[in-house]
Every structure is written in structure tokens, then in C-alpha cells.
């Protein structure tokens, strides 16, 4: 494109922005209202890629938009720079993880700058800097003081390949989310954050986010937290001192409990087996060993044949005194509810499968054929196919059909509950249990406590000391940070224990009273780092505190968060949890960190995710070199709704570059001077400009960036036509339209827009303009003149909307008095309508 040289434009404007800092947020006297727009910060793995380019282009549209709307917009960037890949690279190359990390950061930072994202470069943070992780340690200590950080031995997810524990959230379908290897269970003493204390709030507060977060993400969070409501029921076990409590969502079926099952890997199972016969003890030992070899996926697979063994013990049903056998089986999980269930085979499919496998009794206690007023009847596909079939309970015997009766109905074989509906029976039995002191209403969550310790080097050291007699001593706040020692001389190879344990000089300490102690050798999950980073951006250089409460008051919570849907559960849940903890501790005044969330899609190539191994990798740097930053950014915004994936094979950065050149050239041809009054300009062009100004805010705020780009393209075409049509170049409407193009284009193509603005004669920066308000008078719909002919003669002219349809126009024509006079009493034989311009009426002569 003649004249338009993106390289020259980029080279010109980058230093200007560096010098003028239009995106700085450091002026304490800035009176503009504030907005906090945050992109999820990157992990420094190599250079920026196409996925980054998309995310940061879209986030920047939003940040730049609010600036044009007169806001002081905080749009910060930093690096999530602790974590495993740095360690892997360090092992492979025999270097310090720091080296790899900070080299990559430098590279990404340079790319990010060139990408012209409107970040405030004075607020950069790196989570691997001691200046940052000091406050991770502070946060840990705050949770520790509150009893929200604790250590326990339990069965944890262990990745045999990465040789590290994983949080439940990091196990996807039984595999390590990072390396895809099967995860096994290992009993280890680990640190946990007590996120389960916040389960109800994490769930209930999702209601506040409805409509502001993608509904899919809200649903995933709800499902992850997984609240089940029901009752705890206490059973006495013969010869066992402590009562055994089970959690059930169906306490109404208590009279149908015919056996009890405890998880084989629970403490309780071991105790019950130990108190049983030598035969049971040895059978139990074998069974447990077998269970521990199976994976989580196998255990939760409902189609797998049921296994289990009787423990030779009996439990007493608290409502009817019935003696039921206690079994152990691996379909019962140790870490859900109380790790034990009352088995009701007639009404629970897993229990039924188990009972049928081992010949245990099955007792129906809900007549699912009995009608329930006010309840939605259970309709099965069979009933729809065969509506006349009489439903009779005897024919539905689960022992015969193998189908548990899960539906609603009326209680039978249940003493005081007989005749009640499910809901009423649940209420009644809980009353009875509470009166007898043998049970109570209860709920259980799928959410587990957050396992935060990692046996790896490149992370935040846990600020706890251990004495030989087993005491935990938190490091004093004033002694923070517990600095990560150099990796030199440490074996970083994964081996199941932290490399820091071998850093003798570091790990051994002496308490003030002379007692020797050892530092905790584990480091924190990097999700701890990212759980509060949005607050550190508010006072990134504050050496005295994690964040300044007054700054948080001013800026937080984040108004708009932008990032990938891959973080729909983990990161967002942890950040929500830590925010609530900080709220409870009085450090913040809000309970949700991210008011609104936008999940951008992925950038694909030929329909699939890009990867080196697939050979379909598109290199961002090559795209930027070939088409320029603005063309790539514009392509990202123009590709479609931001939530959708972009297939790079289907879009055209070359086309974007062409459009940019076309827009930019308008500025060359505008003949009027800045400051000219627009009032006398071409009315049609002005109307188009003002309609875009009127629509743009709604479009941007609903993330329809692609529509704004399309509308800009239309406007550019019309301005070009007006200029080329002769005297147009001096028309004030041409300047008005061209300035509007520059201002709105600054959302997507900041270099081109800035250059255009300067060429239009302005000294100010386009990035700091305010979006002009549309003139309401120009928004009223224009009209066109339709001609009505009768037998070839013009009889009337009608002012109509340009979008009028044929039927409507014909009706108006027929209703015209002039037309009626001209037609007289002749018969109309034909009407041809070309909306909105012409109506031709033919009559029978
Ligand atoms: C008796 C019963 C009868 C049950 C019935 C269900 C249907 P959700 O909805 O997923 O929370 N359960 C309790 N603890 C368990 C554990 N540790 N491992 C495996 N299963 C466990 O499931 C709650 C139901 O799952 C509970 O209600 C219990 O079975 C079982 F007709 O109790 B129910």
C-alpha cells in the first residue's frame, strides 16, 4: 500500500508512548472515575504466541474503550513466573531456573511492548521476585493464624512423572493436567488451605456474578463445589466404641438400609477390620492392597464390577434397631461425606449392583407408582412409548430388574414414615433423628481442601519451622521473606521430596532459645501466587505490605477480567476464596475479586489447536513482521465474537492491513483544518458517523468488537466515496467522519489510529481522546421519496423509511388520495412495488 508503512509507523509511535506515558495511572490527583481492566497474566514460557496475541488484543479493546469514555483505566501486566517448566528447563540445560525465567520475561516483555497493549509499565510484577513472594508468605501466615492453613497426612494425588502432588483441580479424568500421566494415590503429610470452610459462600456468591460471568463458568464452579443436602445419621457398631456417621441425601429411605459400606482406605475400615477375626484381617489387607493399585478413574467407573468384603461387624439402624452387616467396598470414597454409607439397594443403583453381586437383602421403601400431588411424576421413555402399560410395583422389583427405584412416591415399609411423600419423609425422619439425638440435617460438598505444598524448588518457600519434637513454628512476619536459596549445588531432579531439604545451610536454623529446627522444605502451589496478584498491582512497589488497603479501596475489585476458559475452575475459585479470606480479615471491602469476566476463545489453525508436533504452528513474530501489529490485532477483533475460537486459516491479516491502509489514507485527503464546526457537513455522511458513535458503546460493552470493526469499514468506504466525488474533501463531515474513524480505530489498531490522528493535524494522542457524543438530531431516521405511478404517470410522492417493505409501501400507495382520484372507478389489475423507491399501478382501461 502506497504510503502506509506499518514499520515506520510502529517505530515512530512506540518511543512517543514511552515518553508521554498515556497509560500511566500514577497521578494521585487524577480526577477521572476509575476502571480496573485486567488480563490474566502470562506464564513466561518462551515468546508470546498467537493465543497471547488474541487475549491481549481483546483485553486492550476494553481498556482503551473505557479510556475514551473518560475513565482512568488501570491496565497492568506482570508475570506468573514460578512453576515447573522453569525447573524442567533448568534441569535439562544445567542452569538456574531464574535464568530461564527472567530471559523469557525479557523476551515477552519486549514483544508485549511492541504489541502496543496499553499497559501501565510502572506496575510490572513478577511472582518469582522476593518482593512479591514475601507477601505470599505473609498471606500463608495470615491463613495459618486463622486456622485456615494446616498440615495433615492423607491420601493425595501423586503424579509419578512430575514426582509431585497435585490438587484435585489439577487431576483431569484421572490424569495429571500437565503431563497427562495417570495419577496415583500416595499417603503424605501436606499443607492445605481450608477452602471448604468457604464452600457455601463460594457457591452462594456466584449468584452475584450471574449475567457478568459466562454462564458456563458459573455452572462449572457450582458443579465443582458440588453441594449435596441431606442428613447425617449415626449408627452404633457392635463392639466399637465410637458411633459411625453416614451422610445421605435420602434419609427418607433409612428403613430400606440393609447393610453399611465403609471406604477401604478409611481409618474406620482399618479399625473395624482390626477388631474382627484374623480371616477378616487378612482378607482386608489383601483387598486394601488391591484397591490401592486401582486408579481414581477405575474406582469411580460405575460400570465396573463391584468388589468388596464383609468386615464381620454389625451396625444398628437408629430408627428401627435393625442389625445390618458392615462391608467395605471401593465404590465408597474415603474423602467424601464421612467415608461410609448406609446402603439402600432398592433405591440407589450402586448399592443395588453391590447387593446383587453379593446376595445382600433388598427392601423397597418407596412406592414409586403412588401418585404424589404437587410433585412432578416420573416419566420414563418406556411410559411414553407404552402409555397404557399399568405401572405396578411388583413388576418393578429391583432385585429382579436390576434397576434401582430412584423416583418419588409414597413411603412403605417405613413405620412412622408410611404414606409420606419423599420430601415430607425427609423432613419427618430428620425430626425423628434429631429428637433421638441420632442424626441431623447436613450437607456435604464435593470441594476438598486446597493442597498447596509442592515438593519442588521453583516456588515460594513455606514460612514454617519444624522442631524435632514436632512443633510448627511460623516464621515471624518481620523475618520475611524466607528467601529461596540459590539452586546451585541442589539436585532439582524430581524425586518425591523437596530439593530444598538438601540445602543444609538454608534448611537448618536455630530458634532464639537455642532449639534446633528445620525449615519446611516445600514450596507453595503457584496458584497461591495468582490468587491475589490483582491486588499487588495496586501498590506494586510497596515494601511494607502486600497491598495498600486505600489503593484497593480506590481500584478494586477488577471491573473486567479477561482470560482463557482453561481457568474456569482452578484459578478463579482460588482467587475468589482468598478474596473472601481477605475480606474476613478486614483487608478488602468486597467479597468477589472479578466483577465481570470475558473468556476469549482459542486461536486454531485448520480446525485444530496449534502445536509444533502437529506442524500447524503459526508464529506470532512472523505474522507481526509480515502484516504489522495493528493488522494482527485488528484480525483478532474482527474474527468474530471473542468467545469463539479463531481459525487462523479462515481469517485475513492481509485484508486487515489493506483496510488499515485505506483508513489511514483518508487523513491525507481531508482538506479542512482541525477545529472546524461540523454542523454544515453532508447530512447523510454525518448521520452515518453519528449512528456509529451512538451504537459503538453498546457494541463494545457487549463485546461485539467484530461488529464495530465492520461498521468502521463501512464508514471508511463512504468517506472515501465522498472525497472522491469531487468537492467532498473540504466537507466538514469528511473531517468529522475521519476523526471518528481514527478515534474508534484506536481500540483495535493503536499505531495506525495514532498516526492518522496526527496526520489530521492534532498534537494530542488519539488514545486519550474522548469518544464524541452522538448528536441526537442526526439519529432520527432519514426518509426517502417513493414515487407512485398510475398507468405510467406519476400521481404522488411519499416520504417513507428507507427500510420500508413492499407490502407496507403498496398499502401506503393505495391509501393515497391522489392515487385514488386518478384510479377512479377503474379496476386495478396489477401493482408492481420496488421498495422503497417506486410503486407502479396498472388499471383495466
Ligand atoms: C442412602 C441413599 C439412598 C443414597 C438412596 C442415595 C440414594 P451425592 O448426591 O453425590 O452427594 N455416599 C455418601 N458418602 C459416600 C461416599 N463417601 N462414597 C460414595 N458414596 C457416598 O451423593 C450422596 C449419596 O452418595 C448419599 O446418599 C450416599 O448414598 C452416597 F436411595 O445414602 B445415599
UniProtKB/TrEMBL annotation:
Q: Which Pfam families match?
A: Anticodon_1 (PF08264), tRNA-synt_1 (PF00133), tRNA-synt_1_2 (PF13603)
Question: Where is motif 'KMSKS' region found?
Answer: 609-613
| Entry keyword annotation includes Protein biosynthesis | yes
> Where is it localised?
Cytoplasm
- Residue span of motif 'HIGH' region: 42-52
- Can you list the GO cellular component terms from the UniProt entry? cytosol
Which Enzyme Commission number(s) are listed?
6.1.1.4
Which segments constitute the Methionyl/Valyl/Leucyl/Isoleucyl-tRNA synthetase anticodon-binding domain?
Answer: 682-805
Tell me the keywords, alphabetical order: Aminoacyl-tRNA synthetase, ATP-binding, Cytoplasm, Ligase, Nucleotide-binding, Protein biosynthesis
From the UniProt annotation, give the residues forming the signal peptide. none
Residues covered by the Aminoacyl-tRNA synthetase class Ia domain: 13-210, 447-647
Name one molecular function that GO assigns to this entry.
ATP binding
Origin superkingdom: Bacteria
Catalytic reaction(s) noted: tRNA(Leu) + L-leucine + ATP = L-leucyl-tRNA(Leu) + AMP + diphosphate
Q: By its UniProt entry, which InterPro entries does this protein fall under?
A: aa-tRNA-synth_I_CS, aa-tRNA-synth_Ia, Leu-tRNA-ligase, Leu_tRNA-synth_edit, M/V/L/I-tRNA-synth_anticd-bd, Rossmann-like_a/b/a_fold, tRNAsynth_Ia_anticodon-bd, Val/Leu/Ile-tRNA-synth_edit
Q: Which residues form the Leucyl-tRNA synthetase editing domain?
A: 222-433
Top class in the EC scheme? ligase
Q: Name one GO biological process term.
A: leucyl-tRNA aminoacylation
Whether ATP-binding counts among this entry's keywords is yes
Q: What is the protein's major site of localization?
A: cytoplasm
Q: Where does ATP bind?
A: 612
PANTHER family in the record, alphabetically?
Answer: LEUCINE--TRNA LIGASE, MITOCHONDRIAL, LEUCYL-TRNA SYNTHETASE
- Family note: Belongs to the class-I aminoacyl-tRNA synthetase family.
What is the name of this protein?
Leucine--tRNA ligase
What organism is this sequence from?
Answer: Protaetiibacter intestinalis
Phylogenetic placement of the source organism: Bacteria, Bacillati, Actinomycetota, Actinomycetes, Micrococcales
